[in-house]
Amino acid sequence: MLDVLLVKSVTGGPEAFFSDTEINGYNLTRDIPLPSIPVLDAWVKSKGYTTGFFDLDQNPGDELVAKAAEADVVGFYLNYSDHFKVLDAARRVKTKYPEKLVVIGGPSITNFKEGFYKLSAPKTPGLFKEKIGRYVDAVVYGEGEIALETILRHKDRSDEIGELIDVGDESSRGIIYKDKTGTLHVAKHPGFVSDLSRLPIPSFTLNKGLIPVAFIETSRGCAFKCPFCEMPGLCNALRLKSEKQIEAEVGYLQALGVRHVIITDPAIFPSKRMDMLSGIFAGRGMVWTGYAKPGWWKNREPLYPKETLKKARDSGCVSLFFGGESASEKTQELYAKPRLEVLRETEKLCKEVGLLSCWSFMVLNPGETSRDVDRLIDLLIEMNPEMTVFSPFHVLPDSEIGLNPGKFNVRLTDPDYKLKGAELYARFSKSAGVDKKERMRNLVENHPRLVRFLLKLMLRKADYFRCVETGLGLADGAFEMLRLDAALSRKTNIKIGKSNYHLMFEMAAASGVKS
Question: CA 37 to CA 6: how far, in whole Å?
C-alpha cells in the first residue's frame, strides 16, 4: 500500500501555435519532466512515507484509476493548460474510491486558491458542467513539501487538517481543505520552507524514460518585486541553497547519466551565483541553462559582466533566458526593469562569448499601444537573439497590479476573471497546433481587422481588464502578439518559442547537444 501516488500531467498549452512539439525525438508536450514531483517525492520519502508515480500523459486514465487503488492519497499537478484532463482524472478517482484523499497542487493553484472550488468542467462535452470541487479534498498553494507531509500525517483522521488550519498551525500553511461537511478551511499563508538545507536530493530517477534532462533549483523566492508578478505576494524571502548542496545534486545527476540541467530559479542572482554555478559545472561535460536578469532600471550596466558570461559558457552553459518585458522606456521604469540600452548590451555580450539567448516580452502593457509593438519589432530585429517568446499582458490576482489596479491605470471589469480565463485557456490549448501558425500569420497580415474582431469575440469571457488610458484589453494584446509573431517570422530568423522550459530544450538542441 502506498501513502501517496503523485500524478504528472501534461505541461503543453496554446503556445504550440509558435513552435514544433518534437525535438531530438521527444514530444515536448507529453514527455517533458516536471521540476516539482521529484522534489516532493524525495521529501515525502525522507519523512518515512511510501510513494508511487503515475504519468498521466504516457498512460490512459483507466490505468490511473487502477493504480490509485494502492494509495491512501492521490496528488495531482495542475496547470492552466490542462486542467480539464486533470479534473476529469480526479473525478474518476474520487468516484471509484470516495475514501481516498484527492489533493491538487501546482502553479495554477496560486491564482485560484479557494476559488478553485468554483471551477467548472464539462462532465459531458457540450451538455452540462459541474463544480469540480466536489471531487477534491484539498488544494495546496505555495511550496508543497510541508503541506503534503501534514496531509499524509492526518490522512486517517483527515478532518484534523481543517482544525490545524483554523488555529493557524504552521504545518497547515498552504492548505485549503474541504471537510466531510463540505466546509472549506483556508490557510492564510502559502506553503513555505524557510531552510532549503532541509531538502533532500530530489528523486531524479523519476525522469527515467522522459527527456534526459533534469531541473535543479538553487534558490527559492525572488529578490525583486515586479508589480506584474505574483511571486512577491506569494513569498518575498529569497532563500539560497549552499554550494555544497548544489554540487551534491549535480554530482548525483552526472552519475545517473544526465547531461542537460535547467536551473529553475526565477533569476540567477546575484551575479556571483553565476560564477559559483560555473565552478560546479566546470569540467563535467554537462550542459546547463537558466533564467537570468539583464539588470534593473537604476543601473546602466548589465548585471553579468563579460567575464562572468564567458566563465559560464566555458563551464557548459549553452543559453540564458532573459526577461526583457517591454520596448517602452516608460514601461521599463514603471516595472523597475532594465533600460533598453542594457538589453542591447546584454545581448551583445552574449554574442561575444558565444551564449545563445532567449528574450521574453509582454505585449500591450498598461498605457502601451500598437506603436510600442512596432518598437518591440525594431528592437528584436536590432538585437537578433536566438529565440524570443512573448505573451499579452494580463493581470495576475496576487500581483501588485492585481491588488492595486488603479495605481497602474488598469480597470478590472470582471471579479471572476481568473476562473473564466482558466477555462478559456484550457479550451484554447485543445485547439492549438503548430500546423495552424502559418494560416494565422497570413490572416493577421491580410485581414487584421477581421482577426482583431474574431479575437474580441472569442476572448469576450476572459477580456477582464481595460487600460484606462488607452481602452485596450486582453483581446487587443492577443492580436498584437500574433502580429508580432507574423512580423518577426517574415523579417528575421529568430525562433519564436513556446513556454520557457520548452525553449530551454530547444536552445540546447540548437547548440548541438544530442539526447
Answer: 7
